[in-house]
Specification:
The structure is a single chain. This protein is an alpha+beta fold. It folds into two domains: 160 residues, no CATH class; 138 residues, Endonuclease Chain A (Endonuclease, Chain A, 2-Layer Sandwich), CATH 3.30.870. Helices cover 42% and strands 16% of the residues. Helix 6 runs antiparallel to helix 7, helix 6 runs parallel beside helix 9 and helix 9 runs antiparallel to helix 10.
Length: 322
């Protein structure tokens, strides 16, 4: 562990939050110093538990993102960075609590949790202008942390002060985070994760509105499963090629093909596998918007007609992301 341990309060921690891809993140070299590690040793700890850090918990900055942040942050710690840092989202910082243990880690984790609770104040203090969509995304992430912290609570070393802040954040789930699957209410993330985990060979996603969140659910399918996304990639924030590359860098080997829907589809579907094991789900909303409003997903029992639909769609021309 490094000797230069940074014992911080909330005021100093605020300066170590950056806005990247519309999310509040902290960078690996700052977190390493906070937790008393060298950056190399810190990242090794994360690598040893990499299954706990999916793409929405931790991602590597692109060259453009790194250059932009360096040009706007002239701190000595940043000046010595010659590699592309890893960014940790709020959930990623919480997950660190299950990896980095001990009294120092406990103390620093409490400070970090208190900081993230004041994210909204930080945004306005920095005069950062963000879109309504990003505000909704941030709100969604804060609510989701309730579930994340419940899971973390079961895994962490028992400490009285940790229990206190866990209770502070244990506020439950909003109605907007639920959707209806076959007539029963579930948390939106859990539903999509459950559906994709059932795939054995292939998944076809039929949806004209896709985004990064669409891709994030794919990681819950077995690694050998192939994905075909049939979409015209509409909407104000369509999926970008750079976002796809970032996802593929975090999850190499994931086979994803993009085909045009050619303006002929209205409803949204998820089709798992083919043959006798084929499953078809009719989705009331796009998965990229999961949790924003109450919607319904229904498994279709008679799938014969959808076999022909799948064959036709698989013959569509390729969709080129920009």
């Amino acid at each position: 562990m490094g000797d230069d341990i940074l014992i911080v309060d909330e005021n100093s921690l605020r300066d170590k939050i950056y806005i990247i891809r519309g999310m509040q993140v902290m960078l690996d070299f700052d977190l390493a110093k906070i937790y008393g590690y060298t950056t190399k040793a810190f990242n090794q700890q994360v690598k040893n538990n990499i299954e706990k850090f999916p793409a929405d918990f931790r991602f590597r900055l692109t060259n453009d993102e790194n250059d932009n942040l360096r040009s706007n942050n002239f701190t000595s710690s940043w000046g010595g960075t010659r590699y592309l840092p890893y960014a940790f989202t709020e959930q990623g910082v919480y997950m660190l609590m299950t990896v980095l243990k001990g009294e120092l880690a406990t103390m620093q984790s409490i400070a970090l949790v208190r900081l993230f609770k004041k994210l909204k104040d930080h945004i306005f203090e920095k005069n950062i202008l963000i879109s309504e969509k990003k505000i909704i995304d941030i709100t969604e992430k804060v609510v989701k942390n309730s579930d994340d912290i419940k899971d973390i609570k079961d895994k962490m070393v028992s400490k009285s002060d940790i229990s206190v802040f866990m209770r502070l954040f244990d506020s439950g789930i909003r109605d907007e985070d639920f959707l209806i699957l076959d007539g029963k209410p579930f948390n939106a993330d859990i539903v999509y994760q459950s559906i994709y985990s059932k795939a054995k060979k292939s998944v076809i996603v039929i949806d004209d509105y896709i985004g990064v969140k669409t891709l994030r659910y794919f990681v819950h399918a077995p690694a050998n499963v192939t994905f075909t996304v049939v979409s015209d990639n509409k909407g104000g924030c369509p999926l970008r090629l750079s976002e796809l590359k970032d996802f593929q860098a975090e999850y190499p080997g994931r086979n994803i093909t993009f085909l045009q829907s050619r303006g002929k589809l209205h409803d949204r579907y998820i089709i798992l596998d083919s043959g006798r094991s084929m499953k078809v789900y009719h989705c009331g909303a796009s998965s990229k918007d999961a949790g924003k409003r109450i919607t319904t997903i229904t498994r279709i029992k008679g799938v014969e007609e959808y076999r022909d639909l799948a064959k036709i769609l698989l013959g569509n021309p390729a969709l080129a992301l920009k």
